[in-house]
Design goal:
L-amino peptidase D-ALA esterase/amidase, 6-stranded mixed beta sheet, 11 helices
Length: 417
């Protein structure tokens, strides 16, 4: 599933534990429940801890309704520093009168076990909105959680952040800065309530590279825009979305403090992590059977290309057609046409592609003859590309989505059960 297209990047194992000096753990503390989408009890509480103080940065949901953990984390990250992350699944701790109190308490509990300040803890929650978060199971499990921290505990941690996810999502890379080998790893949860223009989901990234707080925030803000903000499952922007990065500096590189070649290399590594996680998330959309990648070229600006690509992957009619393996290119052109961007629809070309080949379905804004049998064979694959040109411009963009299936309705029809 990983795309290894970034120069000077080597993919390695280990997720959030791949970088030097990061331990993780996940346990089942008693929050997890059984529903139509949960076949067994799973870990529901995770902890990531750094051996030393880290530079830290985050990007948050744009939803006006924000989970209490986001409010607490924003306060804690005002100094650009952190040493740990505590996160639970099952309960979002959102729209609760005692939400901030509970989120702060989670930080205090984790800090007490780690021997650090509560202000050095990032807190996150995911799950059902509007239900009171019981703090007792978290408090009772914190000692076990902290004592079980290991430098290879990432599988336990990534399981603990999953809700309707059907697969763990983690990736790690190595790259060179200042002659030193640096490592970066991340884990993500996200399957439903996923839509662009935000942090998109809960994502936790660790690195042993050294970088200033200001440039770490700039790098994260830059890369979110071209990765997680270009992935959509269902058009719903969650209340708890957050992406955070911890950078320890343990690799020993000269701390990045200017936008130079090292900063570019750091951004490339961050792109490799977040692009792959975005693809994994789109592929694991609730009930999804296909990953859809829409690449738009020939635009007069990157913004125009991005707007068109997002318009296509967000179209429910198009997504349903992909589930049915129906080359209904009119739905693609329809979504292209209502995109909020300026271009000549009479110059639009559309091609569908997969591992089975590619086929033109539209030229200069009009349909062309093609083999329905070949088209269905192409759309029978798990990864589909929609390749669109909208003119002769030099800009392009890619967005990721998934098909819309019967199971999406089943999962969300009894999410709280």
């Amino acid at each position: 599933m990983k795309l290894q297209s970034v120069d000077n990047i080597k993919f390695v194992e280990g997720g959030v534990c791949a970088a030097k000096g990061f331990r993780a753990n996940g346990i089942q503390c008693g929050l997890a429940h059984a529903g139509a989408h949960v076949t067994k009890k799973k870990n529901d509480l995770a902890l990531i801890a750094a051996d030393t103080e880290c530079t830290a940065a985050a990007v948050y949901t744009t939803n006006k309704v924000k989970g209490a953990p986001i409010l607490v984390t924003k306060e804690h990250l005002k100094n650009g520093k952190a040493k740990a992350v505590i996160v639970n699944s099952v309960n979002a701790n959102t729209c609760n009168a005692d939400g901030v109190e509970k989120a702060s308490k989670m930080c205090e509990l984790a800090a007490a076990e780690l021997g650090i300040s509560p202000e050095d803890v990032i807190v996150a929650s995911t799950g059902v909105i509007g239900q009171i978060l019981p703090i007792e199971p978290i408090a009772n499990g914190m000692k076990e959680l902290a004592e079980g921290l290991t430098y290879d505990g990432n599988p336990r941690a990534v399981e603990a952040i999953m809700t309707t996810d059907t697969m763990p999502k983690e990736v790690a890379v190595q790259f060179e800065l200042d002659g030193k080998i640096c490592t970066m790893g991340g884990m993500l949860k996200g399957s439903g309530m996923i839509h662009p223009n935000m942090a998109t989901t809960l994502t936790f990234i660790t690195t042993d590279a050294g970088i200033s707080p200001e440039l770490l925030q700039r790098a994260l803000s830059d890369i979110v825009k071209v990765t997680l903000n270009r992935a959509s499952v269902d058009g719903d922007t969650s209340t708890n979305d957050m992406v955070c990065v911890l950078a320890s500096g343990a690799a020993g590189n000269k701390v990045i403090s200017h936008e130079d070649a090292d900063f570019e290399a750091f951004e490339n590594a961050l792109y490799a992590i977040m692009m792959n996680l975005a693809r994994m998330m789109a592929r694991d959309g609730e009930g999804a059977t296909k990953l859809i990648e829409c690449a738009v070229g020939g635009a007069d600006s990157e913004k125009t290309a991005e707007t068109v690509a997002k318009s296509v992957i967000c179209s429910s009619l198009f997504k349903a057609a992909m589930f049915g393996e129906d080359a209904n290119w009119g739905r693609i052109l329809c979504a292209v046409g209502y995109a909020d961007a300026e271009f000549d629809i009479n110059k639009v070309d559309v091609k569908i592609a997969s591992a089975k080949g590619s086929i033109d379905v539209c030229k200069n804004g009009a349909g062309v003859e093609f083999s329905e049998e070949k088209a269905k064979e192409i759309l029978g694959e798990e990864e589909i590309q929609i390749l669109i040109r909208i003119g002769d411009g030099g800009f392009s963009a890619i967005a990721w989505g998934c098909d819309l299936t019967y199971d999406y309705v089943k999962i969300n029809g009894d999410y709280r059960s």
